[in-house]
Structures are given as C-alpha cells and as structure tokens.
Hints:
Mean pLDDT: 78
Structural class: mainly alpha
Distance between the termini: 146 Å
Radius of gyration: 50 Å
Number of strands: 0
Strand content: under 5%
Low-confidence stretches: none
Oligomer: single chain
Amino acid sequence: MSFVKTKSFKYIKNLVIGVGAAIVLLGALFKLESWEFASEMLIVGLSVEACIFLFLGLIGPEPDFYWNKLYPGLDDYNSRIQPLTAGPNPNMPEVAPLHGDVVERQLGGMLTELQSMSKSMGALKALQEVDFSGTQEQIKSMSNFYTKMNEAMSDMAKSAEDVRAYKDQLASLNKNLGSLNTVYGNMLAAMSNIGRQ
C-alpha cells in the first residue's frame, strides 16, 4: 500500500488544507480591515491555497468506498462484469460461486425483518394518530367513578351488617314467638281444663 493511502497521509493532507484555508481567511480579513501587511498576508494566503489546489489535483481523488474488493473492475466503465450467478469469468479473478438457495434464505430473512419493522412502524403511526386531548378529563371521571364505587361498596358492607343484625333480631323474635306460642298453648289448655272442672 502506498503512503498516499495511509491514515497518516490523510491526516497530513487535511491539516495542510485546514491551515491553508485559515491563512487565506486571515489574509482576506487583513485586506478588508486595511491593516498593516494586508497585501502580504493576502499574497501568502492565496499562494498557499494555489499550492494546495495543485497538490490535490496531482494526487487525484480517493475513493470513499472500496467496491473493487467485492466487485473487481466495477470502477472501470469498459470492464465486462458478469453477474455473480453466471459463474467464473476468465478475465476476472476467481470468485466463490453464489448459490440461489443461500441468496433466497438471506433475502427471506431480510424480508421478514422488514415486515416486522413495517408492523412496528404502523403501530407507532396508529399511536401517533390517537387523540389524547380529553385524557385528563377521562382520568378525573374514572377517579370520581372509583371513589363513588368505593363509597357504594362501603355502604353495601354496612347494609350487609344491618341485614345480618336484622336477621339475628328476626331469629330472636322467632324464638320469643315460639316460646310465647308454647305459653299461650299451655294457658289455653289450662283454661279449657278449668272450664271442665
């Protein structure tokens, strides 16, 4: 690998471009403000910028993506690249064959993930369209409903206690009536015995 493709070279290139641009801007500032040495600063700045542009023109553009490693010859307009499924090309380096079932499995997995993402996005869109403007009033009315329901349950519990007490009193009254009936029956029997004698 040449020095031009190293990280060090890229760092130095960016440093030179940045410093050169700063010098040009300072020269322009000096000239606009009519400060001392304005002409000299502008001459130095523009000379540095001209050297930088010459330098960038000589080294050529650096590709950001290295597609050539995956698809050799892709950056050459006249290259004859065959589809990967067509098999080996005698003009190209040997590339492992690509099987349809492998591609189908990988694309199927990607399709499943995309469908899942689509469903999630649909759910988020539905949530976005929900109107929450009356939610506070609804929460207040639900809170009021629960308060009233608790009061009604408390009243029902008290009523159940009253019903139980009433039931106990009725049972006691039944016992008393039963004993009164017995006493009354005994009195009638005694009176009828008195009348016979």
